[in-house]
Amino acid sequence: MHELGVTESIAAICLKHAQRNHAKRIVKVNVKLGDLAGIVDHYVSFYWDMVTKDTVAQGAELNFIKVPVAAYCRKCDEEFAVEEFDLTCPKCGEADTELVSGREFLVESIEIE
Length: 113
Ligand SMILES: [Zn+2]
Description:
By secondary structure, this protein is of the alpha+beta class. The chain has helices at residues 3-20, 41-51; strands at residues 26-34, 61-67, 70-73, 79-81, 97-101, 105-112.
Protein backbone atom coordinates (compact mmCIF):
# COMPACT_ATOMS: atom_id res chain seq x y z
CA MET A 1 0.00 0.00 0.00
CA HIS A 2 1.84 3.11 -1.18
CA GLU A 3 -1.12 5.46 -0.67
CA LEU A 4 0.19 6.55 2.74
CA GLY A 5 3.42 7.82 1.18
CA VAL A 6 1.70 9.75 -1.59
CA THR A 7 -0.81 11.20 0.87
CA GLU A 8 2.05 12.45 3.03
CA SER A 9 3.59 14.04 -0.07
CA ILE A 10 0.35 15.84 -0.93
CA ALA A 11 -0.01 17.06 2.65
CA ALA A 12 3.58 18.35 2.64
CA ILE A 13 2.93 20.31 -0.58
CA CYS A 14 -0.26 21.79 0.87
CA LEU A 15 1.28 22.76 4.19
CA LYS A 16 4.22 24.41 2.46
CA HIS A 17 1.81 26.34 0.25
CA ALA A 18 -0.28 27.39 3.27
CA GLN A 19 2.77 28.54 5.17
CA ARG A 20 4.10 30.55 2.23
CA ASN A 21 0.73 32.30 1.88
CA HIS A 22 0.13 32.74 5.62
CA ALA A 23 -3.10 30.76 5.37
CA LYS A 24 -5.19 30.16 8.46
CA ARG A 25 -6.49 26.96 7.06
CA ILE A 26 -6.72 24.89 3.90
CA VAL A 27 -10.27 24.56 2.62
CA LYS A 28 -9.97 22.31 -0.40
CA VAL A 29 -7.31 20.52 -2.37
CA ASN A 30 -7.84 19.45 -5.96
CA VAL A 31 -5.81 16.44 -6.99
CA LYS A 32 -5.47 15.15 -10.53
CA LEU A 33 -5.59 11.39 -10.62
CA GLY A 34 -5.03 9.37 -13.75
CA ASP A 35 -6.71 6.02 -14.26
CA LEU A 36 -3.28 4.43 -14.69
CA ALA A 37 -1.66 6.04 -11.66
CA GLY A 38 -2.38 2.92 -9.63
CA ILE A 39 -3.64 4.93 -6.68
CA VAL A 40 -6.94 4.28 -4.96
CA ASP A 41 -8.60 7.59 -4.04
CA HIS A 42 -10.53 5.97 -1.22
CA TYR A 43 -7.30 5.11 0.61
CA VAL A 44 -5.82 8.54 0.01
CA SER A 45 -8.91 10.13 1.58
CA PHE A 46 -8.59 7.80 4.53
CA TYR A 47 -4.92 8.65 5.13
CA TRP A 48 -5.57 12.34 4.45
CA ASP A 49 -7.60 12.74 7.65
CA MET A 50 -4.83 10.99 9.53
CA VAL A 51 -1.81 12.90 8.20
CA THR A 52 -3.49 16.33 8.34
CA LYS A 53 -4.66 15.98 11.93
CA ASP A 54 -3.67 19.03 14.02
CA THR A 55 -2.39 20.92 10.98
CA VAL A 56 -3.95 23.81 9.02
CA ALA A 57 -5.09 21.21 6.51
CA GLN A 58 -7.26 19.38 9.01
CA GLY A 59 -10.80 19.06 7.66
CA ALA A 60 -9.82 20.20 4.18
CA GLU A 61 -11.82 18.62 1.41
CA LEU A 62 -9.82 16.40 -0.90
CA ASN A 63 -11.27 16.54 -4.38
CA PHE A 64 -10.11 14.09 -7.04
CA ILE A 65 -10.20 15.08 -10.67
CA LYS A 66 -10.13 11.85 -12.62
CA VAL A 67 -7.97 11.91 -15.73
CA PRO A 68 -8.93 9.38 -18.41
CA VAL A 69 -6.24 7.46 -20.24
CA ALA A 70 -5.45 9.03 -23.62
CA ALA A 71 -2.92 8.23 -26.33
CA TYR A 72 -1.47 9.95 -29.36
CA CYS A 73 -0.85 8.39 -32.75
CA ARG A 74 2.47 9.32 -34.39
CA LYS A 75 1.24 8.14 -37.78
CA CYS A 76 -1.85 10.29 -38.18
CA ASP A 77 -1.70 12.78 -35.28
CA GLU A 78 -4.91 11.44 -33.81
CA GLU A 79 -5.43 11.73 -30.05
CA PHE A 80 -7.84 9.21 -28.62
CA ALA A 81 -9.23 7.80 -25.40
CA VAL A 82 -7.78 4.42 -24.49
CA GLU A 83 -10.25 1.74 -23.55
CA GLU A 84 -9.51 -1.73 -22.29
CA PHE A 85 -5.73 -1.27 -22.67
CA ASP A 86 -6.06 -1.05 -26.45
CA LEU A 87 -3.31 1.26 -27.72
CA THR A 88 -4.00 0.86 -31.42
CA CYS A 89 -5.19 4.02 -33.17
CA PRO A 90 -8.95 3.93 -33.91
CA LYS A 91 -8.40 6.10 -37.00
CA CYS A 92 -5.59 4.35 -38.87
CA GLY A 93 -5.24 1.09 -36.94
CA GLU A 94 -1.51 1.56 -36.29
CA ALA A 95 0.06 0.88 -32.93
CA ASP A 96 2.73 3.57 -33.26
CA THR A 97 1.19 5.41 -30.33
CA GLU A 98 2.19 6.86 -27.00
CA LEU A 99 0.34 7.59 -23.80
CA VAL A 100 -0.33 11.28 -23.26
CA SER A 101 -2.34 11.12 -20.05
CA GLY A 102 -3.55 8.72 -17.42
CA ARG A 103 -0.53 8.46 -15.12
CA GLU A 104 -1.10 11.79 -13.36
CA PHE A 105 -1.05 12.12 -9.66
CA LEU A 106 -0.50 15.73 -8.70
CA VAL A 107 -1.87 18.64 -6.75
CA GLU A 108 -3.69 20.87 -9.23
CA SER A 109 -4.83 23.63 -6.90
CA ILE A 110 -5.14 24.47 -3.24
CA GLU A 111 -7.87 26.68 -1.77
CA ILE A 112 -6.86 28.47 1.40
CA GLU A 113 -8.34 30.96 3.84
ZN1 LIG B 1 -3.45 6.79 -36.28
